[in-house]
Amino acid sequence: MLIKGFQFSFKGAKNQEQDAKVNQARLTKGDYFEQLVRPDLAESIPDSRAEMLKLSSVTTPKAKLASLNKLFQILAKTAKSPVASDDQLPWLIAVLSKCKVYNVCSQLDYMTNFTLSNSDLDETEKFHLVSK
Questions:
Q1: Are the CB atoms for 15 and 105 separated by under 8 Å?
Q2: Alpha helices, DSSP H, located in the chain
Q3: Contact predicate 80/86, CB 8 Å
Q4: What would the pLDDT profile of 42-90 be if each residue is shown by its tens digit?
């Protein structure tokens, strides 16, 4: 039990370190990534920002995945052409830079490690978990 507690505190410390790096990059390079976003996708950033903030307020992994899924549905609705992952990444970073979610790595780790069963997830949610 002591070893398991040590592993958990180590993982938590590692997440804090990763969150700090992400926050530093978000503050210093957020505007740079916003310039890389396709113009038709940039229109969805304000709506996506609100959905990203919900990610911190919901408490279950399933609800967090549903929020993440809604985030990408907003992107798909505003896109005027198919969206490749090369377009999604700058858009996602721009959304992160505009909202005040300071523990993104911890949120993703929580969704990945504490999902009860893969059978509870649909294919889109499984994709979001695998491609974090």
A1: yes
A2: 2-36, 39-42, 45-57, 61-78, 85-98, 104-113, 123-130
A3: no
A4: 888 888 888 888 887 888 888 888 888 898 899 989 888 888 888 888 8
Contact 61, 111 (CB under 8 A): yes
The single-letter code of the amino acid at 23 is N
**Spatial separation of the C-alpha atoms in residues 18 and 20, rounded to whole Å:** 5
Residues, the chain, total? 132
Amino acid occupying residue 91: W
Is the Cβ–Cβ distance between 93 and 30 less than 8 Å? yes
Higher-confidence position of 57 and 29: 57
Which domains, and CATH codes, for the chain?
2-130 (1.20.1050.80)
Determine the Cα–Cα distance for residues 82 and 79; give it in Å rounded to an integer.
7
As to burial, measured by CB atoms within 10 angstroms (0-12 exposed, 13-18 middle, 19+ buried), residue 91 is buried
